[in-house]
Backbone:
């Protein structure tokens, strides 16, 4: 009889451990009470001997820890919600750092970057030089950031290797840009014009340009988008212009353009998204609350923005 009792209590212990630490449907306080009752049942029962009680007492201690271990493994490797929290955090940090958050973060490429930066920090001179010439990830932006890291190295040879690779990439982008410009100038085809605009955006985002030169390219890009709007007036291009205004801190242009867009597209969350970013950057909490209130009225399951929700949470605004 005592063996059956031990078996049933072991099954019960495993069940409450599963419910507490895996599905989280049983409160931890209730688990402790049930766990204590199981122990008391055994200690005050006459149907066990010392050998079996010792084995079971070991089980009552071990099973909860097994449950906790499974729970942690679940958090680390299985739960999509856990990954979503990490991805949301990466997304918001990307917004704070680059004033974007319009594209998804490629976790794999970011991990490559972290590994590459570690290599540049801890490896010897010869290993760094070899790494600089051979490291060619799919994301060109990652390569550019590694080369910029190399330009700051203490060793002159590493700086030289990085400069050579960086200048070569810069020249290649300039050649490609001239090629796109010439092709459109010669053909005047709409398709070639669109290709030119796409390349401008890629060139600005890859990380080669900075300072005044980057500002000039942004102005050129804005003018190209305005020209495109004369051909085909689409909200996407208006939003790209607003994004450039936001990055360039042309706040008056944002206010003027966004007002027109809200009248034209009153139920499109993307217009509200730009305005939320705008008011957040200006630290205008009152306007942020006002535009969020309007956004909630048009928000649906298919028409909503994670960017807006992230910013609102950070600002502590109650939904």
Residues:
């Amino acid at each position: 009889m005592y063996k059956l009792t031990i078996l049933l209590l072991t099954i019960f212990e495993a069940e409450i451990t599963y419910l507490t630490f895996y599905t989280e449907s049983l409160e931890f306080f209730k688990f402790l009470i049930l766990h204590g009752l199981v122990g008391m049942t055994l200690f005050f029962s006459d149907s066990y001997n010392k050998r079996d009680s010792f084995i079971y007492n070991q089980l009552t201690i071990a099973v909860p820890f097994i449950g906790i271990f499974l729970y942690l493994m679940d958090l680390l490797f299985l739960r999509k919600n856990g990954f979503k929290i990490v991805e949301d955090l990466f997304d918001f940090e990307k917004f704070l750092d680059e004033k974007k958050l319009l594209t998804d973060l490629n976790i794999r490429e970011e991990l490559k970057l972290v590994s590459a930066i570690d290599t540049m920090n801890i490896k010897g001179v010869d290993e760094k030089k070899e790494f600089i010439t051979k490291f060619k990830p799919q994301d060109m932006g990652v390569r550019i950031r590694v080369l910029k890291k190399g330009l700051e190295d203490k060793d002159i040879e590493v700086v030289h290797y990085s400069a050579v690779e960086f200048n070569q990439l810069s020249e290649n982008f300039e050649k490609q840009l001239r090629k796109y410009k010439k092709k459109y100038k010669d053909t005047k085809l709409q398709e070639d014009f669109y290709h030119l605009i796409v390349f401008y955006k890629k060139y600005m985002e890859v990380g080669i340009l900075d300072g005044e030169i980057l500002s000039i390219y942004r102005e050129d890009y804005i003018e190209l988008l305005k020209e495109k709007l004369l051909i085909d007036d689409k909200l996407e291009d208006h939003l790209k212009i607003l994004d450039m205004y936001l990055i360039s801190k042309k706040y008056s242009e944002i206010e003027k353009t966004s007002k027109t867009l809200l009248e034209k597209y009153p139920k499109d969350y993307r217009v509200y998204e730009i305005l939320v970013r705008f008011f957040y950057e200006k630290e205008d909490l009152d306007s942020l609350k006002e535009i969020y209130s309007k956004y909630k009225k048009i928000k649906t399951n298919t028409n909503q923005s994670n960017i807006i929700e992230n910013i609102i949470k950070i600002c502590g605004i109650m939904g």
Q: What stands out?
A: The two ends are 58 Å apart (CA to CA). DSSP finds 15 helices and no strands in the chain. The first helix runs from residue 2 to 21. Confidence is low (pLDDT under 50) at residues 78-105.
